[in-house]
């Protein structure tokens, strides 16, 4: 655990020196295994103009187990679960795909990239994914409405 | 130039060289103008060397397009090749002597050598001459530093030895050279500093470990933590290189590779990290278990308390960790795949197993059993049937039901016997064992009736029960196996019906409602106190109950379920337990004791 804290601290330093665009990390040294991330919807995406709050939770086994990413702000997105958890589980965030040398900074980049380009082949919300594929206009409309409703 | 300055020049040169190579240059204590220096040989591209194969019987393999080099190696006769790429070779030792008159009047004397002598003598002489040539070229000036640099450059090029041909060396140098290479690599590695990708700390090489297959480096602490965690939590598939994407890029599209792209670490690698032996042992065992479990042809011990896997050549039981090698793992992986391909229907038809392959031995409890009928090993010459209930036809199942309901097994050979008439003292037609028809207890041939004359025993005074024969009509209370089976059968009747309809579901079948009360102990038959009269009374009371005499102490779980224990005592508790066993193993009873229903036979031969 001591090693985990040391690493989290190091990663925080790295992230704060090189924060992905539109992101802000609220870091609490008393509780460094929970990061609060404020993120602006990327301009080139339908989430543009929205402000999203995310929580990044590090498990005790970190970095052997992946950090857990969850959207605290509701978001209409195929890769974010449409419930009060707002959880994400894809790519490197999958427990079986996570490798200890993966870093938070790449997790943050992944999240940002997904807002710009959702990954419909690995969707947690199948209905949103199929809407994204078949009726992109409808998807964009709902996503923007949600941004207005929840992410202002 | 004045004579007396010469000394100064030599001294000056050596001291400046000493300043450049403080550790390397060693001045001869007896001669201030003699010194030696070891020049590291670490070719920029590893030097390929070849040793003749120790067993030189195989026909020589052809060389790669052989060059006609100046050294002129005859390419025709080549021993079998054993090529190694060496990153470090034993140093080139330069021994130098600066004679009186150096540098202006006398040439320096150079002697080059290596131990072992892996550089060809010709080449050494050439290099020595180059030193003197350099001295001439420089206009007979101080030449040591230039010469050392010249040799270093040559060493970095591997003395051009690997340029157009592979360096051939004699076999006796092999160990020395390989050892030097490995040790130097280790030394260089230990002196280096590496950023561990897990704890993100820079670590000294000596506290790091480099994975041999992919060369990724992590610190020992992180590797230990991670792999110990994986193994303790049972996630053996996590025991691979931690680096993201490691091993995946090596897959060449279009090239079929059975091997998984990300390979698990071998036990020997884990031991080198080092992980504790007990942990590695656990890893190896879990890996093996997973393989056994994923292999559908694995057969498990029929003893319910054991259920170990049968011994198999494919997955030999692990006794010594050091014997586990990577190649073993790969071989067995491949084998499995091949075998599965070759016998797609193998699992569906255990019948197809060759007769000679039927013997299976449990690796855990050493129980020998037949892999077809799952009974204790019956020898090569007994016909037997698969134990799977679904393999039996309606008719066979009906026969089986009848056999279970209307025969008693011999306690010695288990052959079902049916009494057509007479007393309950039976003599097995097959093995001549004397036994009691009511409870299958083994009887002393000298005094078989003692069994029926012991007061308080379940069969007391019951010699003549069922005199008219066992046609299933008599409401007779059996003990032992029969008793257990009879009760169980009634209890399981509903289950059996369902089973007949839904054979597939049979295995997972819910246990039927609790067994009805076992029949109350029978009131001793009043009349036949002294059946047959003779020999019955006044015998030394000796109970000869043999539990499964063929393999004492072994539960005959496969045969007739767990219920085939001759249960001598009408112990209600014990009986309940048997009922449970019998019901649990219901389908085990549709077994190999395939019989003809010939009521007038005293006992029915096993087919």
From TrEMBL, chain A:
Which keywords fit this entry according to its UniProt record? ATP-binding, Nucleotide-binding, Transferase, Ubl conjugation pathway
Where does the UBC core domain lie?
Answer: 3-152
Tell me which stretches of the chain form a coiled coil: none
**Which domain of life does the UniProt lineage start with?**
Eukaryota
Q: What is its EC number?
A: 2.3.2.23
Q: Which InterPro entries match?
A: Ub_conjugating_enzyme (IPR050113), UBC (IPR000608), UBQ-conjugating_enzyme/RWD (IPR016135)
Gene3D superfamilies for the chain: Ubiquitin Conjugating Enzyme (3.10.110.10)
Q: Name one Pfam family in it.
A: UQ_con
PROSITE patterns given in the database record? UBC_2
One Gene Ontology MF term:
ubiquitin conjugating enzyme activity
The top EC class, named as a word, is transferase
Name this polypeptide is given: E2 ubiquitin-conjugating enzyme
TrEMBL record, chain B:
Its recorded reaction(s) are: [E2 ubiquitin-conjugating enzyme]-S-ubiquitinyl-L-cysteine + [acceptor protein]-L-lysine = [E2 ubiquitin-conjugating enzyme]-L-cysteine + [acceptor protein]-N(6)-ubiquitinyl-L-lysine
Has UniProt tagged this entry with the keyword Zinc? yes
Indicate the secretion signal residues. Answer: none
What the entry lists under Gene3D superfamilies is as follows: 1.20.120.1750, Ubiquitin Conjugating Enzyme (3.10.110.10), Zinc/RING finger domain, C3HC4 (zinc finger) (3.30.40.10)
Q: Where is the composition biased (Basic and acidic residues)?
A: 338-354, 543-558
Q: What PROSITE patterns does the database record attribute to this sequence?
A: RWD, TRIAD, ZF_RING_1, ZF_RING_2
According to the record, the residues making up region (Disordered) are 58-82, 320-354, 533-567, 585-607
Q: Which UniProt keywords apply?
A: Coiled coil, Metal-binding, Repeat, Transferase, Ubl conjugation pathway, Zinc, Zinc-finger
The protein here is known as: RBR-type E3 ubiquitin transferase
Protein species of origin: Mytilinidion resinicola
